Amino acid sequence: MKKNTLLIGALALLGMNSAFAQDLVIETMKGNENIELVTDAIFDVGYGNIGQTSTSTIICLGEVDFGADGNAYQATGVEFAQGWGDFGVERYVVLHAGNTFEESVTFTEMTVDRTFGYHCFETFAWNMKEGEEFERPTGKQKVWLTFREGNGNLRSVIFYKNTIAEEGMQPWINESPEYADKANIIYGDIFRVAVDVDPENPDDPFKDCKYNEETECWGGVVKDFIVKSAEPIDFGEGEFQQLVAYIGHDGERYKEYMEFYIDEVKPENMIARTWTGINLQKWNDFTPVATKLKEVKGSHYLFVKWGDATNLHRIDLLKENLWFENPDCGVVYEDIAPSENAVVFVTKGAGDEGGDWSQGDMEWEVIVKGGDGARGEGSNIGYTSNGVVVAYYDIDFKDGDYKRVLINHSCDKNYIGTIEEANFSLYIDLDNINWNSGSTPEDVQNALAGHEPIAVVRAQGTGKWDTKMTTAAALKEVKGEHTIYVVYNLPSSVGANIYGLYLDPDAGTGTGLKPTTTIEGLNVYSVNSEIIVNATEPVSVVIYTISGMPVANKILPAGNTTISNLPEGMYLLKATNQNGAVSISKLMVK
């Protein structure tokens, strides 16, 4: 049977061949502050890679030291995935060096091929190219990546000190003769069902969960199914560091995890947990996903608990961290319930406005329609986009009784960004603004200059328009009757339908932006075309455009730092100190 690969990182090649003693691995993940997405690419937070690339993509990988003579590296590699098109069609990842992309010179290219899924990564490695069209860089230079005759998803770019013995797609680490010495390999047939099953009951959820000898895997499984090893597993003296599960399914499930326990299924006995909802294409073609393993000594029964339908072929316990570890799913869904004392306001009606207080319905109006012409759809406002503004009239906050805001909404995307990139910002006292229904998002933000929101609530992708979830945020103290203005701050090509807005006297939980600065000794302000950050301690700073696009991501030292060369417009600056305290500032650059 074919076994696909996923999340097999450059570290997996160590120990197989001295040619793979790489000196530099550049991870193309959102947390890498040296990565700059210039054109046609996004950070895929769910999978921890760069995606949505094209033949027009330009990515800056940061600075690389090639050595005075240009011989610091003899080969390059790329962790690449592409689940569409034909196999055997040559595609190229091209690397350039230079201070700017326009000034850069091509120094090598790597041939890549389609893989067995959009996120089934393979490592392709090639020796540095020679010839008139290639020029080896020397010294420290910025590296730029482009595609030719194809494109795909990227998880890392590797610079190898030594040449590659066999160029092209590289073998898996488990094909190495040394692998067996570092692994305890546990095949699926040693497990037994560990839940009560009534095979005669057609409604029993576990009646079809079983081991299939033909496909050599556990299949037909569902959420909360559990198996137990027939005999205790020897964990040695605690030397095992990684757990690798070989799984298969069709599609992706952002909420699905697989859990591993010893002796009994209870929280304190969990030794590993890994996201298994990755995008795969075959139920019985198995993909390894690796995760950290807690220290376990001695012999114990091993339990496996499923979070959803995923086939399991085998489990490897490893004495070294050989595989790229499967990250937690970057898509974290929230669905927060309001308290029983919360009041809810809904948008009934069609067109630009609706509701009738005499009939017990809140009055609302679409003040700014946005690019897609936001309008009522009976029970929600649809066709929304970045920059939409909706007014909720005559809302009684009483004597400051309400402590948080909850917004029940839906969105057809699985993930639309962090709260800084996607949110509903609530304002009051905007009656003097001369709104124009055709205003652009930039016009809206300029009009809001000098006004602070009373709450900022996360907007999230829920996967489907008919899947509604609720997010929450703390509410500033507000008394009396006011008009609430809800401003949609969303990425491009994203909309969100609001079904209910709750005001809750119970502070409860919330993940919205805190409306006050929480870092002592931090001052952030703008002067004409510059942003100045004055901090008494080091802070990590991310600057977003008002549409949610990150434009800067740096760690700043204590002291005064000036950030220049930002285009005119409104920006959101998020600062985080070493203790995790966060400060949010809205700034106008002129």
UniProtKB/TrEMBL annotation:
Keyword annotations of the record: Signal
Q: Which residues form the signal peptide?
A: 1-21
Matching entries from InterPro entries are given as: Secre_tail (IPR026444)
Highest taxon listed in the record's lineage: Bacteria
- UniProt-listed Gene3D superfamilies: Galactose-binding domain-like (2.60.120.260)
Protein name, UniProt field:
Uncharacterized protein
